[in-house]
């Protein structure tokens, strides 16, 4: 039942109420909302609703209508985010706004095999290593795994690459051994979904559990199994859709992607999807992983094997590392559409220079006020547990702060899909010679018109925003030609301005995050000209900091992009010859910008983004060779960074 508390409930009354519920063996979950505080209570004893309603301090009681209780949305409104720490101390969260990928071979076959797969999937962006040491098979004649030896290799590989280990448990007898090898996440296989004794035992460990849906189970049955885990003691259950049995035989199972959306409303638990065991056709797996992300899944789990033809199990369900790498880049591109980004293993370290705060976290500077899009980009790229966003007054302050080491990184917008380049930042790169690019992230920008709580659309006379906010909402503003438009430093500055001036005629264009932060009302939503409104931000850092990381990318994801700035020689064919360096290598120039050089009439420098072919070998070596050749053909050149493009 859900017990809604009276607003004026005293501490004594609350203690009385919880003591009463505890005395009847109820498990409680208190949720403090803005409007009301509720206690969700589940237990075996059947209490009369009116009996609880009579207890002082209780406003009303709503019975939980579902047969599963702790797994239901009624018990807990906000999403559960499962936290798993890796060997580098980074916390991987499943169920937040980042997509996670778990990957590995179906079964650990040898030390060499698991180390090789772990290295490759980590580099492509997996954050969990998943493989079986003990493999319950549907046939007694297939490979059952290496057993304890497999657990040992899994642990070694997981630790080396910062990937927490997920492994299947088919029998409670294995619990002590799996605990000894520090298994991070237990997987209950589809075949064991209704092995209730096993669920109770594994649930009581309090560790995260991936619960796979049986191919014959309804979603309600899946949630009843989750209820066994939750009521036994773990709060960290991740549901996994892996295909159900239908009359269709052209795929191994039928991947039930609508389950993701249905589960979202029934439960607060994170949901991931395993396209490998559902589809069972190698070349069709990556597309279904993308479909899973598009359906709103919190992550995907796929079987990856370097040599599936020789795999001792799961051959046809496994994709090869190259497919996985491509799949991860595609997911990376899709994530912003879903308002999400992809989790990566962090490989940076904290700077020791003078800092603006004594926080042990990385300090990441952005320009604007709380709620700015750049602050959201920081939240996407870094993890809240590892980074603190530092608000500064301008883009050049952000560059300055990373140049002098008072912040570790900066997050700056560089281009927008509707409005083009953010020229100031191109210019800042030429001003701050020691600042380089360490990474990039793309955000889907959605604007709203925000006004005072008491205002309505007809009151508006003046609208404040960053010029980009105006530029991206042109069509909407054209319908209100009488409004005066006033530029602000950032959209969040505009929102703050409107909130702090008691005039109903003012409005700001900014994100709905700003509405919440500054207590404003959303007068119109999604007013951008085109839903394809994306801003690409780059993460900047001092060259010193990037060098210290010895060419290691900021996150454990393969770099695929390099940025150069150069000035050409003052001779005919100079630009043509320079660009020939990229053409010769068949490299795709995704962006070429030219900017005037101050004080040198009609002279420009160029900024170029180049996609590097990872297939052509070491990306850093390729960039070094391009750089050497550019040095020869240009007047001046700087390699701004080799990084993974988050697009
Ligand atoms: C597995 O995940 O390797 C597996 C055997 O899957 P399922 O339990 O979904 O069949
Ligand atoms: Mn498998």
TrEMBL record:
Its EC number is 4.2.1.51. CDD domains: ACT_CM-PDT, PBP2_Ct-PDT_like. It comes from the Bacteria. The keyword Signal does not apply. InterPro entries: ACT-like_dom_sf, ACT_dom, Aldolase_TIM, Class-I_DAHP_synthase, DAHP1/KDSA, DAHP_snth_FXD, DAHP_syn_2, Preph_deHydtase. Residues 563-644 form the ACT domain. It holds the Pfam family DAHP_synth_1. It catalyses: chorismate = prephenate; prephenate + H(+) = 3-phenylpyruvate + CO2 + H2O. Pathway: Amino-acid biosynthesis; L-phenylalanine biosynthesis; phenylpyruvate from prephenate: step 1/1; Metabolic intermediate biosynthesis; prephenate biosynthesis; prephenate from chorismate: step 1/1. One of its GO terms (biological process) is L-phenylalanine biosynthetic process. Keywords: Amino-acid biosynthesis, Aromatic amino acid biosynthesis, Lyase, Phenylalanine biosynthesis, Transferase. It is an enzyme of class 4 (lyase). The keyword Lyase applies. Residues 363-542 form the Prephenate dehydratase domain. Catalyzes the Claisen rearrangement of chorismate to prephenate and the decarboxylation/dehydration of prephenate to phenylpyruvate. This is Prephenate dehydratase. The lineage of its organism: Bacteria, Pseudomonadati, Spirochaetota, Spirochaetia, Spirochaetales.
